[in-house]
Amino acid sequence: MKFISFTLSLFFCLLFLPAHAQFWDLAVGTGVSGYAGDLRPDFGLQKLNPVGYGWVKFNATPHWGFRFSILKTQVEASDADAPYVWMRNRNLNFVSNITETAALAEFNFFKYITGQKRHNHTPFIFSGLSRFRFDPTAMVDGQKVELRPLGTEGQGLDSFPGRSIYGQYALSIPFGIGYRYNFKGMHSFSFEISGRYALTDYLDDVSLTYPGYTYMSQSRSPLSAQMSDRSEELGLPRNIAGAQRGINSYNDIYWYAGVSYILTLKSGRCFGMEQR
C-alpha cells in the first residue's frame, strides 16, 4: 500500500509540479438546508435543517480548482404550510435524509493564492455532478412510514406501465456561488450558497396524479391507499383517479447556505517525499 501511495503521489507531482507548487485544501462546513418541489413550489424558509459537509480540493491554478465533497442533511415540507388552498387540502408531508457525494469544478473571479496578501480573497462559482441517497418518509398515527415501498402513485402496477418504482439513489446537478477569504497563513474561510437540481421528481414522493384510493387499497394495501390520498383526514372527499397530485413540470431541488473553515496544504515538492 505504501508503494502504491508513493507512486500515485509521484505521478501527480510530475504531472502538475512543472507549472507551480501544489496547493490542496481540506475543509469542513456547516449551515442550513432547504427544499423546493411539489410540496413547496418556492424557496421559502420554512422548516430549515442543519447541514454538515466537507471537501478536499486541488487548486490547479489561482483561478481553477477541483473538489470532491461529502454532504449530509435532512429536508422536509408539509402541505399544512402551503400558500394555496388546493395544496393544504392535499394534506401531504414528507421528511427525507440526504447523503451526497459530489465532484465539482470551481472558478475564482480574482486571482487567489493562499498565504499572499495581494491575492487573499475572491468570489467564486462552482458546478459539477453529485450522487445522493434519499428516503422520503411521512408520519401517520404517530408512526414513521417509508413512502417509496408503498408506490403511492401506482408505481410498479400494471395499470401504470410508465411509472416504475424509483430508487433510493439519484443524481443531481450542483450549482453555487460563494466568497473566500484567507485571514491568516494557510487558514481561510468561505461562505457559499448552493442548489442541487435533482434528476428525480420523487425526493418528496410526489410527482404525477392520484392512482385512485380503492384501486390502491385492492392492488397494494390500505396503508398505500391512505398515504397516497390523505385528503379524507381533513374531512374532505377522496380525489378521483387521474386528478392532479404533484407538479411534474420540473424536478425537485435541495439547497444549502453554509460557512466553511479551510486549511491549505502547500508544498513545492512531491507529496510523500518531503521526509525522504
Structure report:
The protein has 4 helices and 10 strands, in the order H-E-E-E-H-E-E-E-E-E-E-H-H-E. With 276 residues, it is mostly beta strands. The chain has a single domain (23-267), classed as Porin (Beta Barrel), CATH 2.40.160. The strands form 2 sheets. It has an 8-stranded antiparallel β-barrel. It has a two-stranded antiparallel sheet with strand order 6-7. Helix 3 (213-219) runs antiparallel to helix 4 (222-228). It is elongated. 34% of the residues are buried. Mean pLDDT is 90; it is low at 14-20 and 270-276.
Report a brief summary of the structure:
With 276 residues, the chain is mainly beta. The protein has four helices and ten strands, in the order H-E-E-E-H-E-E-E-E-E-E-H-H-E. Strand 8 and strand 9 form a beta hairpin.
Keywords:
276 residues; mainly beta; Porin; eight-stranded antiparallel barrel; two-stranded antiparallel sheet; 4 helices; 10 strands; elongated; disordered C terminus
| Oligomer description | single chain
Helix-and-strand structural type? mainly beta
Q: What share of residues is helical?
A: 10-25%
Which descriptor suits the 3D outline?
elongated
Domain unit count: 1
Mean pLDDT over all positions: 90
Helix and strand pattern: HEEEHEEEEEEHHE
Instruction: Give the CA-CA distance, first to last residue.
Output: 17 Å
